[in-house]
Amino acid sequence: MKAERLADRAYTAIVGIITDADLSPGDRLPSEARLAETFGMSRTIVREALVRLAADGITEARRGAGSYVTRCPSERLGAYMPLDGLAATLGTYEVRFVVEAEGARLAALRRSSDDLALIEGRMAALRRALLSSAPAHDEDFLLHRAILEATGNDAFVAILDQLQDKVMRILRAGVDISRTRPPHVIEAMTDEHAAIVDAIRTQDGDGAALAMRWHLWQGRKRLMP
Q: What does pTM read for this prediction?
């Protein structure tokens, strides 16, 4: 089996330890050596899984002290993605940080008046959906897609379309989980999108890229309690 798939298995198994043992933020995970022995894998594979878990905000490595839980995936995630697919689904954020941040920057610099009208219309639709009881994932995806369309480069859109299934799972889960929390969480989600659109409107490329990265970073955090 390829190392990448073994790392996915290790990632899933570590998340299983966190949830099954009801670990909380600040709790220490078993050592790399113990995890490797438990999973029947090399420490290299376990280390790769821990690096990816840290990138997803679930664990953190402390020099000389091992790895600790920082956030636990929401129990509601299971309704949208199987546990064994969590690594691959959350892994899309690594691609989106690169593609969508640069896409937002180029959209701000290149957008036409028609592009802006479409983006603003999609933003209005998303705001209405978020403030109602509607699911809102379709509106969310269409706004992100409209931003990439405004780059004038079809390759950006093609990449997002290729990721659509996994991205839609995340968007569904993100809205659902956020609605179980105080109202300011949904308000923050709306404000993050509005900041991206505002930067594109004023043709602030760097501001649009920064706003997109911040939104994606916060979106990943919202999947954790």
A: 0.86
